[in-house]
User: What shape does this take?
Amino acid sequence: MKKIFYLTLAAFTTALGACQKAELVPAVGTDTDLGSLTVKFATGPYRGEEAIRYIIPSTAKEKIIIPIPWYYPESSSNETDVYLKEMKLEAALVNNAMLSPALGIIDLTKENQFILTGADGTARPITISAVRTKSNKSALTFFSIEDLGVTGLIDQNAKTVSLITAEDLSNVDVEVSVSPHANVVEPLTHMNLNAPTSITVLAHDGVSKTVYQVQKMAPPKITYGFRSGSQALSFNLKLDDLGYSNGLKPSLAASGNFIAVSLGDGSAPKYYNRSTGKYVGIMTLGAAAGNGSIASDAKGNILLMDQAANGGTVKIYKSASMTAVPASYITWTNASGFPLGSKLSVNGDLNDKAVIIATCEGTSGAGSKSFVRWTVTGGVVGTAEVVEATGIPYWGSEVNIGKMSPRSNDANDGSFIGYYDGGNDNLYYLNKTGTMTLSLAAQTSGNAWGINNNLTDAKEFNNAKYLALYCPSHFPNWGINSELYLYDVSAMGNFSGNVNSTNALVFSANFAQLGSIVSASGDVLIAPTADGYKMQVFTIDFNTGNFACYEFDCIDK
Assistant: This one.
């Protein structure tokens, strides 16, 4: 059985009152009676939020000084000095220990007097105060040469940055991300990176620092798939902060160092740094209408599809980058019987071998079980095939339509689709003819009625075939999180069980509500990097209100 990694973006903490029995057993090296002190904001916009949970060191006998972060949140410029006079203090004590007087809202700019009575009945005086403390974090979290489309592979253990490229790096400008409020000592313009170079990250405290060695190299890879333990959340951004207020037909495409977001409303997609989520610019639409879907293959080629009614003209454009003018790629009279354009996927390399699928949308008069497939051979697109699925229910339109994805670059390998079906939200595998042959049943959590299992994408990475399923929540405001699943579908023998419980599952994550609720619409995209060392899984969700990226690598460490 493959190892399954479960992550969640929602964290829960529990703190105990001053004179209550504690569930926390202090760790080795802490005070034997007082395990920790939790400081929460008592006023202002962060009221009730935890500023710090401070583990009491065994050396702190009579005087405890809590290091309060200089800024809160850590990545912001909101200074904490204005809150220190009114902070809520909670303690975790061993059983039968107590503090008096009882903790509550206190002024941490003063030395507050307490009596700590230990579990053995021994009492001793202590003082509790706080001091604002600048961060000692000095990590380099992103390294990129944007002009060349080169992203450095950062090894935090070895403190190295590997540049996988044959380009001349004798005079390049570098973009980096570092720990909040840290900075890089060396100039980042006109660098010569053809030879090994040091990059020093200095923490906000002005003392702590980390030195990274940057060099051209190709680290060894594991032989198959992503490396266990490499999964990490690269970013999770609030759509409100990015200026998105609506999105019934969002879609994603990746190329080079960038990830594009299309709303399908006729506006040009915006694109962002694919490792940090930093806004970069607006994608070139050319003749494309911008009212349909975008998608990308495993090599960074982008497709842009216009919306087409039944009997209308299907137009799909192709581009090699975010700024290149898309060229006409497919023109076809829509003979599917349904509208097309809102759901598009591609697997393979459009310049060599690939499969493209556009999912037919249901209408007010009829549900759909059809899709249109194009096969690319030697970089040449074949004729359109209209396929009607069998053995599965009908789907509808807008958020009720599923996004079908080909399993590989070969149409013989079939395809995957899921969609909302009143809580019976199976994930289906169809063979080449569209016949359902395998499926995963809905989540065992009992929340399937409130989750939209309708977004898929599949790509190959490091000799493994992966399928992503993204399930926007209909009710994130009720605590039902959106869900992301990643499956290994290299062989289909493990494709059985439930969406959240199958031997094919290799990764899972939850997304809690982050921004405004619009609709249970979104997209998911698997995007291997050009150097073949990383695989990123992007999600966008207009009900949880977030845009996120998980990153995996195949470096042999």
User: Anything to note?
Assistant: Confidence is low (pLDDT under 50) at residues 1-29.
